[in-house]
Structures are given as C-alpha cells and as structure tokens.
Amino acid sequence: MADQPSDRTPPPPARLLPVAVLLWLAGVYLRIPVLVAPPLAPFISDDLALSQAATGALTTLPILMLAIGAMPGALAIARTGPRNTLALAMVIMVAGSAARGLAPDALTLLIASAVMGLGVAMMQPALPALLPRWLEPRHLAMGSAIYMNGMLMGEFIGAGVTLPVLMPALDHSWRATLVVWSLPALLVAAALFLPRRDLSRPRGRGRWLPDWRNPLTLRLGLLLGLSGCLFFGLNAYLGNLLQQQGQFDHLADALFWFNIAQVFASLLMLPMARVWVGRRSVIVILAVISLLGTVGATLLDGVWSIACATLMSFAAGILLIVLVALPPLLTTPEDTGRLSAGAFLVGYTVAFSVPTLGGLLADATGNVQHALWVMIGYGVAVLPLAFSLDLGGRKAGFR
Question: Where are the extended beta strands (E) located within the chain?
Fold first, then answer.
C-alpha cells in the first residue's frame, strides 16, 4: 500500500525535530552494519576458519550489494512509496545483519552478509525519495545533510566503538555484538510511521527504472564513484601503503584520523548545506582536493602521507553529501528514487570495481602505490564531468 497523503500544511519547526531525528537514525544504519565487520573480522575468521578472500568479502560483498540492490529499491519505491520501502529495507537489513551472528559456517555468513547489503542498498534511494514527502523544498538540502551526517557518524561509530566498548560488554562475543548492533534498527523502522505528513501527493505507480537518457543519472553516478573509490580504496590499502613506507606502526592513528575526517565533513555540511549544495564550483573544488589528497598520500611518507589521506577523506565526505543531496533538488518527487537509484548503481559499481582492479595490478607488480594510481587515473578521467554538470534545473524555493 503506497504512502497516503495527509495534511499538506507545513508544521512548525518544533515538529520538524522528530523528522530530523528519524532521518539521522536511518542514516546511521546505512553504514553501521557494513563497517562493524572489519573490526570483528579477525574474531570471525578464527572462529569459522575463513580464508583471506572470505574475510575480505565480509566488507567488499556488502559494498557490491549497494550497487546491485539499488534497482530493487527503486522498484519498491515506485510500488509502495519511499516510507514503506525504507521500513521494509531496514527489516531486511536487520534480518541479514543479525543472521550473521547466528551463522554456523562461512557460506551462511556470506549469504547473510549479502542479504544485509541488499537491505542497506534499498535504504539508499528511499531516503532521498522520502525527503520531498516530509520536507519543504527549502529544507531539502538540510535534510540530506542530516541523514548523511548520521551515515558518516555510523561509519565512525561502527569502526570505533565496537572493539573498545561493545564487545567487552558482551563477553567478547562477535556473534552477540552483531545482533546487538542490529536489533535497534527495528525500533527506527517502526518509528518511521509516526510522522503524519506527505507534502507531495503520490501519482499512482510511477516509473522506477533509471532514465539512462537523462545525462544526470550517469554523470552523478560516475562522480559518486570518484568519491567512493577514493575513500573505500584508500581505506582498504592504507595499511599496505604505510607498511611499504615503513610506517606501519602509525596505522591505528592513520585510520582514526582518516575516518573521523568524514564525521567533521558531515558536521560542517549541517550549516553549509543550503549554501554549497547545487553549486557546480563546489563539486569541482572538492573533486580536485580529493584527487590531490590521494596523490599526496601516495607520493609522500609518514605524517605527510597520513595528513594528505585525511584531507582526501574530508573532501570526499563533503563531495558525497553534495552529490547525494542533488536528486531531490533536480527532479520531481516521483522521479527522485529512480535518479538516486541509477546514480547509486553506477557509483557503487565503480567504488567496488576500480579499487579491486587496482588491487589486482598491485598484486601483479608488488607495489601498492599502483592500486592508488588506478583510482587516481579514474578520478582524473571523470573530473571533466564535474565542470560540465548541468545544475540549472534546481527547483524553485531551494534557497
């Protein structure tokens, strides 16, 4: 049953707070289920006797599912509405994420991880599609910044709280840790039905397949891929890079600053969203800084390499928010889901495949820098798209 329209009169600001909280909590669960796996990977590997490839798949498989699951998300949005899709996706995510904690063997674990990734993938286009239903046009950029802040906070929370806080409280059980991280999302899914508002009336069953004739679909996706492949790729290869530089003992500090930089990026976007979202010059500057930061991390050593990696993470985090915030501003509420889904399909395919190709090259040459140069090469190749991005169709009332 599609989301039903209700009172179209905007509520006072005090009543917008619960909506903001729900958006933020949903954003948190875009990343916690994915990034809780790396800190738990050694414990899972020892218990289930995983191979190196299977251990790596705990993180890479959900990222691949972020691309594959974009289309089911778009179909569900067109058929049932964004709020129902988001709630369903969260239930699927919880089922898959908690099932990982019950998995008796590697195959079951990977299947559960794929189901979890599918749920997260369906959440991604549902959130931008929900914004025009809950928020006025002048609040759309802020709404995007709020749930993206939750997502990037989820990255840091999942990676930073699991081992030092949650696991000791659960008798160092990786199974209990996965279940405890997952179940609260059911409360968030139920709470999504509390706001009784729909500022845009659904017009029956809309189209859901991405419009590949719309140049924005491919361009936004390829630019999302620039941000994603640089962040996920450098995150994956940072340890090998520092080891090659003889700086492996700095890895813990490097990962801390690398990941918390995205939190700072999301906090900066809360007051700056309405100013920066929709400006082509901002996208160009952020893409260039992201590339330069990756180049610096590749060529420099020690503290300077870590500083450049942190700068890249900061700029890529802002770039991600700016790009994800565009679909609700550039198209109708009925088409927001399909534009977002198409962009996520392209972006996460790139974020998975380009670092993987770089890793294969690095394996062949024995030099981890070659993996980073593959990602840099991709970024340079798609950078002209940022200069020619047509943002002239922004909706009235955005500012």
Answer: none
Using alpha carbons, select from 315, 20, 262, 239 the residue that is nearest to residue 156: 262
Looking at the structure, do residues 176 and 274 belong to the same domain, yes or no? no
Rounded Cα gap, residues 305 and 240, in angstroms:
13
pTM of the full predicted structure?
0.80
Q: What span, in angstroms and rounded, lies between the C-alpha atoms of 304 and 325? A: 32
| pLDDT given for residue 398 in this prediction | 37
Residue 170 falls within a domain, yes or no?
Answer: yes
Please check whether residues 123 and 157 belong to one and the same domain: yes
In terms of domains, do 160 and 284 share one? no
Q: Using 70 as the pLDDT threshold, list the residues of the chain that sit under it.
A: 1-15, 52-53, 56, 197-208, 392-399
Tokens of 103: 């998995």
Query: Do 257 and 129 have their domain in common?
Result: no
Which of helix, strand or coil describes residue 196?
coil
Answer yes or no: are the C-beta atoms of 23 and 146 closer than 8 Å. Answer: yes
Please classify residue 269 by burial: count the beta carbons closer than 10 Å to its beta carbon, then call 0-12 exposed, 13-18 middle and 19+ buried: buried
Per the structure, the count of domains in the chain is 2
- DSSP H helices, 69-195, are 70-80, 82-100, 106-134, 140-161, 167-169, 174-182, 184-191
pLDDT tens-digit readout, 190-234: 999 987 766 555 554 556 677 777 888 899 999 999 999 999 888
Co-location of 271 and 383 in the same domain: yes
Domain carrying residue 378: 215-387
